[in-house]
């Protein structure tokens, strides 16, 4: 085990990427990087990390920020509950812990949005606490090297991997620090022992690797449980008047809570759909709006169809969204605020829209059609 850690750290010192969160012991900044990098590649998460550090350099700054500003900084990363949980955690740290971000595993586990992996990462990186990290990269490295066929999605499998990771972690050795070892094994999985096309020919563990010897690199680790994907069909109606667009914040209980999008109907229009929205969509269904040459009226409403869009696809971990956008012009200025009230929306100018936190799907449509 000592030989394993020594070889791993030697590989790390020669091959590690120069990343900003590796140059700090501040648990707040390490926490920031770890939450951003959940479900996110380093190349994608790095600009967000730098943006957050510039805007909110301390946990007190994070706690004092408005949720809308945090969501705007987070825009495009997905899994927006992470950002909301971070805000709650920052407020707790400031309000209950005197602004001192915890750096011990036990204390970190008590914070919202921090599980065993994140707590271990922060505790070991910030204070060299002897706790092993186990993320997707670590599962892959251990499964391949040691030939573990346990399901990493099962409690039994997770326990077995956690025990092995802890056994391999160097303890009580000043020359082999837990902070360096943990970063080394994650880096090795991320850049060398990759999910596909691992660099086996240049691997320091090639001669003792079970997967290489048995040609099972593609089959390890094993995860039995399959994610079920929900299909969702969304019809957006984009009401505009002289440069302003009606937008509304999404409520709780669904994706994109707190982000702004347009009035919509999902699937078949239910009984709770506002009459004007129902009328617009029912009239539109009989027309090939993508091919409209000139604007056309919307029944007796002070509205005109402008154009329809093609289908925008957006894929989430458990959901696949298909969205269309129908642009409608409000021709009576007095109707703008009445309509906004009916729809729970408000009119926004382009510069205001840019500043609002929005789902990336909405950003793409706005870029294609307005900005």
Overview of this structure, please?
It is a single chain. The protein has 371 residues and is α+β, with helices and mostly antiparallel strands. The protein has two domains: 2-219, Orthogonal Bundle (Endonuclease III, domain 1); 230-369, Nucleoside Triphosphate Pyrophosphohydrolase. Helices cover 44% and strands 14% of the residues. The chain contains 16 helices and nine strands. Strands 1, 2, 3, 4, 5, 6, 7, 8 and 9 form a nine-stranded mixed sheet that branches. β7 (312-315) and β8 form a beta hairpin. α2 crosses α3. 32% of the residues are buried. The mean pLDDT is 92.
What string, H for helix and E for strand, traces the elements in order? HHHHHHHHHHHHEEEEHEEEEHEHH
Counting DSSP H or I runs of 4 or more residues, the number of helices is 16
Low-confidence residue ranges: none
Overall pLDDT score: 92
- Into how many domains do the coordinates divide? 2
Broad structural category: alpha+beta
Which class of the largest domain in CATH terms? Answer: Mainly Alpha
Q: Examine the coordinates and then state which fold CATH places here, giving the name of the CATH topology of the largest domain.
A: Endonuclease III, domain 1
Global outline: elongated
The main pleated sheet reads as: 9 strands, mixed
The count of DSSP E runs of length 2 or more, i.e. the number of strands, is 9
What would you give as the CATH superfamily of the largest domain? Hypothetical protein, domain 2
Radius of gyration, CA atoms, in whole angstroms: 25 Å
Portion in beta strands: 5-15%
Helix content: 40-55%
* Shape-level CATH architecture of the largest domain: Orthogonal Bundle
Task: Give the termini separation.
Answer: 57 Å
